[in-house]
Amino acid sequence: VIDERMPVGNPDACRGACAASLAVFIKTEFSTAARACSAIPPAPRALRLLSRREFRATVRDLFAGEAPPGSGPTAPRTCARRFVYDPQGRSLASVHLAGSFNGWSPSAWPMAREASGVWSLERALEPGEHTYKFVLEGREWVRDPRNPDAVPDGFGGQNSRALVTCTVTSPGGFAGLSLPADLGAGLPAETPPQGFLYDTHAASGLVTSVHLTEQLRTADVVVRALEPVTRAFAGCTPMETREGCVEGFLRRFGPRAFRRPLSPMEGARYRAVALGAPDLESGLRRVVRAMLVSPGFLYRTELGVAAGDGTWRLTPWEVASALSYTFWGTMPDARLLAAAEDGTLGTPAGAEREARRLLGDDRARARLGDFATQWLGVGSVVDAPRSAALAPEFDATVRSALLEELRRDFNHVVLDGSHRFRDLFTADQGYYDETLARWYRIPGVAGSGWRLGPLPPERRGGVLTLGAVLARYAHSDQGSPILRGVFVRRNLLCQEFPPPPPNAGGVPEVDPRATTRERFRQHTANATCRACHRYIDGPGFAFEGFDAVGRARTTENGMALDTRGTLEDLEGFGAGTEDTADGATALGALLGRSEAARGCFARQWFRFARGQRETATQRCAVLALTRRLRDTDDLREVLVGVVTSPDFLARRGP
Ligand code: HEC
After folding, report:
1. pLDDT digits 0-9 by tens, 40-98
2. Whose CA is nearest to atom 30 of ligand 1?
3. Is 524 touching ligand 1 by the criterion CB < 6 Å?
4. Residue 508 CA: which ligand 1 atom is closest?
5. With a 6 A CB cut-off, is 507 part of the ligand 1 pocket?
């Protein structure tokens, strides 16, 4: 294989003796590495600058006013709704709730029989409009007799309709600052190294003068907003002395701002800052301003304390931060900080318990949406130039709906649906609102809000057939089989390619007499080009059923389309296999079964969560995650696995 194909794009560069010695090297290195995986070595110690996204979320949460521990998230974005069915004395074996919120599943949401004889269920639902029915004993579908609001169900009967709205509960006392929505938006975007997809990259996170200017500006905005409510925010009682008030404030606010208790030296320094001011309130605000630009706030540490055996153990506070930033992208809540305080987080079991709790909270949905958007590389679809002549309706509303669809669908598969890996590539249900339904030509969808429903057949390729993905990997006037193929290889299979040679030239001109496929096939037909493009164009051609803005099509320029794609070496270069798939949905089925795609998903999550590309020794940790995904077929196990892995609590390094 080395003789014939490597390096990709220039196979002549290593033949004969070169190829033979390289083969020996690979065999010895990799088999020792595989053996070494019986023990997973500790990860490197690290300092991590909060990303722009994390910084903004943290500032917001720090001043939003947190509810006391145990009383739930501060600003719930979903809202509980209780459903009650009164069987009027009839005895029933089961009652289920089915509706637009759970894909009309007759068995997913069982209701419970109460002592009074009624059946009930309380669930958190997204705000908006929902339709539903009760399913009696698995077969009899009835509308809610207590709810007069109903709409036609399309089968001659009626569905009940529920309008869900939310009230944001403000915790006792301090109601939270209202801060401008664009606070901190002036921070520069992250610049991770080539090929690293996530804004969490730890080593490239440094405070530049541009950062500092924006951090100071943010601190000033917060301090100004605090002015009328400083005392209430600090939680000082009217009878307290100035010293007592400062003391109490540092004790309460310090561990939230720094996500750990202040050291005695820090405490003394901030006390001096506060007491050096002309009055109590301006002193408290000085402390807030100073803390917001301090490394204790801006960085999170994964340094640990010396364990005595040459390794370092993360402190419970560091674990709390790692968990909350991994799963929420923001600071720990009061419960997590309490778990750090009482030592529960020091053990793998304690960390796992909290990880699962965080994953069950709404904040995890926002974070997983960020992960999926970056994994698939589609954020830029919002402002990618697309020829208006092609589709004037492809406007800002449609584009942001496409991104919202991706976030919701990903969360649905991972958290609410089957949790299975293959459904990321084969789901036949998805979320849409009225805008998106019109764009996808799904009939009969009207009214506000998002709903889960069946997808048209051509959209059943999971992430492959998301409008955001299809429109992102295209040019302003034409779809690109090459960009789509490279996306499959790099983002979904983690197979890397060297960059194209300088003589590769531009994209072939649009030609009304040829299909995209024909133009591209001719373009990359020669042997040098094929060395790479045999892997790239093959999967790319399976997307021919979609145009430059991701709309489904069956002809191009009046000519019939060929949507057959091929996938060489799906499980790794040199495997010698060739799979075929007619269309993106069939390609999705292939990827959904693929071992390499599973390994890649584990690797992508590992990179996002750890903020680094896995080192040679960390491959073992990634392998263990992949195995866990294979054994459980539950995506949540990969998400949680990254913080229960033996290399998480223990660290190595100088
Ligand atoms: C070393 C591997 C390699 C070789 C050899 C190679 N390419 Fe590519 N080519 C790539 C990769 C990777 C990309 C995608 C670059 C990116 O991510 O934007 C690409 C992109 C392209 C694109 C842009 C597609 C688009 O829609 O933007 C064209 C056109 C192209 N190659 C043509 C050629 C031609 C013609 C040759 C032979 C003269 C060739 N390439 C040789 C790897 C290769």
Report:
1. 889 999 999 999 999 999 999 999 865 433 333 344 445 678 899 999 989 999 999 99
2. 504
3. yes
4. 29
5. yes
- Interatomic CA distance for residues 205 and 301, integer angstroms: 13
User: Separation of 532 CA from ligand 1 center, angstroms?
Assistant: 8
Judge whether 571 and 594 are in contact, CB under 8 Å.
Answer: yes
Give 346-397 pLDDT, tens digit per residue: 888 999 999 999 999 999 999 999 999 999 999 999 999 998 888 899 999 9
Backbone angles phi, psi at 617, to 5 degrees: -75, -30
Give the C-alpha separation, 257 to 603, whole Å.
Answer: 32
What span, in angstroms and rounded, lies between the C-alpha atoms of 386 and 416?
34
Distance of CA 468 to the CA centre of its chain: 15
Q: Which amino acid is at 634?
A: D
Closest by Cα among 564, 596, 573 to 425: 596
Record the tokens describing residue 573, joined without a space: 């270069």
- 449 burial (CB, 10 Å; 0-12 / 13-18 / 19+) is middle
Contacts of 238 (CB under 8 A, 6+ apart): none
How many angstroms separate the most distant Cα atoms in the chain?
87
Residues in CB range of 390: below 8 A, 6 or more apart: 477, 547, 548, 549
pLDDT at residue number 306: 94
Cα–ligand 1 centroid distance for 464 (angstroms): 21
